[in-house]
Structures
1.
Amino acid sequence: MAEKNSPKKHGKSGDAREERLKAALKANMARRKAQAKARATQNDSADKDEG
């Protein structure tokens, strides 16, 4: 059984990937927070209308 020992490349490309992932996560969290806030506002207005 032959195993390939290819060293994983860490460096500029790895850092660029980390930065892209970090930016994508931040954008996703902001979008989800905005959606939750909109839902909460929508539910509050619906509760007030019922009376």
Note: The mean pLDDT is 84.
2.
Amino acid sequence: MLSEVVRSAAREPQIITIRGEEKAVVLSMDEYKKLSPPEKPTLFEFFQNSPWNGAELELPERRAEPMRNINL
């Protein structure tokens, strides 16, 4: 019986009711993917796709400063 619902969902969304009240919808995987937000890229992928990927940056040299004493 579930397999029939899944096969029907491949053609059009199938509404599931309980005591006449609409409770859920079974969608095809293609329809689900259309409605789902795209996957977020990893931080690495984000930087790889950045328009500044490969840009040359001139960074000032760091000054050598003595370490601070911190009381923990």
Note: Residues 2-48 form one domain.
3.
Amino acid sequence: MKYRTAFYQFSCFLLTTIFLIGTMESKAQQVVEGIHYHTGLPVQVKISNGIIQDIVVIDKAAEENPVYIAPGFFDNQVNGFAGVSFAFGDSDLTPEGIEKATRELWKKGVTSYLPTLTTNSIEVLTSNFELLSKAVDNKSLLGSIPGFHLEGPYINPEDGFRGAHPKQFVKLPDWDEFMKLHVASGRNILQVTLAPEMEGAMDFITKASREGIVVALGHHNGDMKTVTTAIDKGAKIATHLGNGAANMINRHYNPFWPQLADDRLHISIIGDSFHLLPEEIQVFYKVKGVEKTIITSDVTHYAALEPGEYKTSTGETIELTEGGMLRYPAQNVLYGSASPITKGVGYVIKVTGCTLADAVQMASTNPARLYNLTDRGVLEPGKRADLVLFTLDDFQVNVHETWVKGERVYESKSEK
């Protein structure tokens, strides 16, 4: 009898184990369908344990308004979102706030982004980096924050070129000081934006490049020789080209021409319809092409807030207009953006006539490549299952679903 009981117990254990394994496997495997953003063919994307296992073309009738499937968008300049600022000292920068901003960005199809800290006191930057460093390994964020972007404080202090960065905190490049910030970030600063004409900038660029940090040129007035030397020493990208400059510049000697002329330099552009004129985007795109252009948002925590005037932590008055423009009236310049990257993707398609595949490459693939994040940014087997499903309605990207590391983190109400 005891042998029968033992056999029965073992059989039950074995069946339970098989059931649990089967349940785990079924949970780990998902299939997502959509129109491939590049080929235009209906596909099934098979996912297992957060990774794309296979992409199979399926026989499915064409829909009038197709739902495209693409790698999730990668925004390399997010100053804040939905009331949460990464830059200010009195912001809602708590672990809960970071999660809130991330989840709101997921709704916009953003699966990876760089929280961007702008010019502020070293104390505020250190404190915010220390807090943000914990988000990199926060399992609930699913790896959506691979690192950070420091924009300033090593920029040109002149009005216009400085933009809305508070002048009292602008300073010359200081490598030892920067390394303290880098350590505070968990050594997760992936990009630093600076002005190459400032004293000490070239040595800083050399050292940052050796550390594997992407050096960006921005908020500067560098001439041809300065820009070329900076690129020789390792600078890789121009931050929001066409912005971060004075309203009145010399038609010949200005920072735009040398950055456009050097084929080695990537550019990022803000496609919110306010930062750049259509003809500027057209020219930038024709010169740099799809391989060297990155669509970014420069979005701030004012996104999704009501129009009106707001005070920053350093006392500046910022205006969010009814049309969605974010202005810094004191200098008659823009103060970042109130529009997510999805608007930029549609707008760049509209004004350049580029393909959807090209726009996705500029908003997803190119930034991942720039930071050598080889696990994301493309739709192919072996990569993270970071996906966005959307329709394109009159050049407007309407997100239906967002998947991050194989988990569906957002589904529009109309799709439920």
Note: The chain has a mean pLDDT of 91.
